[in-house]
Amino acid sequence: MSHGVNKLGVLGAGQMGGGIAQIAAAAGISVTVFDSFPGAIDKCKGVHKKSIGKFVEKGKMSQADADAALGRISFVDKVDNLTGCDWVVEAVVEDAKVKKDLFTRLAAMYPDPKVVLATNTSSISITEIATACGATAGRVVGMHFFNPVPLMQLVEVIPAVQTDAAVVERTIALATAMGKTPLKANDRAGFVSNRVLMPMINEAFYAWMEGVAEPEAIDGIMKLGCNFPMGPLRLADYIGLDTCVNIMNVLADGLNNDRYRACPLLKQLVTAGRLGDKVGRGVYTLPAK
Ligand code: CAA
């Protein structure tokens, strides 16, 4: 089945939204990115240049293709200006109310149910987000990308209870056209990726808290012993410690099981503002640039 996308709308110019826009543009799709946060658009343009530049430097993309890809991406700072799209991917803050309000607005902006509304949520229920679209809930689907989007192979495809089968097939076709490998998961808390990854990261915080080993040793053991590209504590910094706590809360509440509660040490670091790479300090302190 063809995905049928000529123009993709992306809500959010952060790491995830920016990455999604980049790979879509590199796949030949025109993209418009919306973000209203001051400075977000300029930051995203800089990230695109740097990331695409890396592909050119490594001979994985020609300069002409890189320029063409960058030329396919436009930006708007008002959601009402995100017009003419035949597919929209939402990648804004992980807050169920914010997402549901946006989906209600999108459903009104795009009354044609053929326009698919996808969410890149990492753990919020797709079924719950879909309810915000009322009668056209069947076009809502989870399309979960991984950071850094240009390098990570997977797209987790999560149908809501309401999602039409044809929308799932088109999502698989679109992810494939973007150069990714789509794999399906059901709409249960954390889907597959975070159901398995987050408890492992949480356990690494327990190991540190209980003095089993220092962070460098925990990460080194998991890198060298399990061939992980990053140790679990380093990965927590990369993902964001606050995001890890939020996802653990979704697992504990959604699966109704306290064994998924966030480790006290992880929560304490978040309280102290040590949120990870985005603030320069989490488990580790990033070297000053
Ligand atoms: N675009 C282009 N190139 C990039 C890039 C990007 N966005 N990010 C990194 N690179 C390049 C680097 O510039 C570097 O290039 P050089 O070799 O020329 O220096 C190369 O990739 C390797 O990077 P690093 O040297 O920094 O380090 P690395 O070898 O460890 O690779 C990594 C970095 C790809 C991030 C790797 O560590 C990795 O795969 N880590 C695990 C990431 C992961 O698990 N992500 C999923 C997180 S969970 C999630 O996203 C979803 C959720 O719901 C929470």
Structure summary:
The protein is an alpha/beta fold.
Care to describe what's here?
With about 290 residues, this protein is of the alpha/beta class. The chain folds into two domains: about 5-185, Rossmann fold, CATH 3.40.50; about 195-280, Orthogonal Bundle (N-(1-d-carboxylethyl)-l-norvaline Dehydrogenase, domain 2). It has eleven helices and eight strands. It has helices at about 15-25, 40-55, 65-70, 95-110, 125-130, 165-175, 195-210, 215-225, 230-240, 240-255, 265-270; strands spanning about 5-10, 30-35, 75, 85-90, 115-120, 140-145, 155-160, 180-185. It has an eight-stranded mixed β-sheet, sandwiched between helices. Strand 5, helix 5 (about 125-130) and strand 6 (about 140-145) form a beta-alpha-beta unit. Helix 7 crosses helix 10 (about 240-255). Bound molecules: acetoacetyl-coenzyme A (CAA). Acetoacetyl-coenzyme A binds near residues 51, 146, 150, 152 and 193. Acetoacetyl-coenzyme A binds near residues 54, 147, 152 and 193.
Which structural class matches the secondary elements? alpha/beta
Looking at CATH, which topology of the largest domain would you report?
Rossmann fold
- The total beta strand count reads 8
- Could you estimate the helical fraction of the residues in percent? 40-55%
Number of helices: 11
Please give the alpha-carbon distance between the first and last residues: 46 Å
SSE topology string: EHEHHEEHEHEEHEHHHHH
What is the level 1 CATH name of the largest domain?
Alpha Beta
Number of domains: 2
